[in-house]
Amino acid sequence: MDFVFDRTADGRVLKNLTIVDDATHEAVAIVPERAIGGLLLTRILDQLALQRGLPSAIRTDNGKEFCGRAMLLWAHLHGIALFLIEPGKPNQNAYIESFNGRFRDECLNEHWFTSLHHAKVVIEAWRREYNEERPKKSLGGLTPSAYAEQLMLKHDKVTSDSKLGCY
Fold it and tell me: Which of 31, 53, 92, 125 could form a disulfide with 85, with the two C-beta atoms 3.0–4.6 Å apart?
């Protein structure tokens, strides 16, 4: 997870929470808001958990939202490991940094958002297109959504006596 900042036409801040799955390369969520503190962050993660389940780990930078009491308590209560990159070492979270650059170049820099609502609509359309229409070499030529679906099908075929959990 990370944040990408922009502004709407009226000069107000647009803070985008970007969440990417390292395994499938899916843009799980991009949440544009005026402000996102620790409590709102945990509410967003709770909503995502209802749709996708909980991750086993989350990697972030040392931003106050990610290191604050609300996030630490939320992760502890849900048994999620938090991995914080070293300050000044964005290469330790390289995939989200690469994704954020693409998001900025292809979406934020290409649109002049007239309102928060306008930003939410355009950004969600870009996120869906990123996940559903862009095949990736690293995923065997599949889109992130198709690759995620393929992984789920494989997971469903694993027998109960499998040693999958051991690896």
Answer: 92
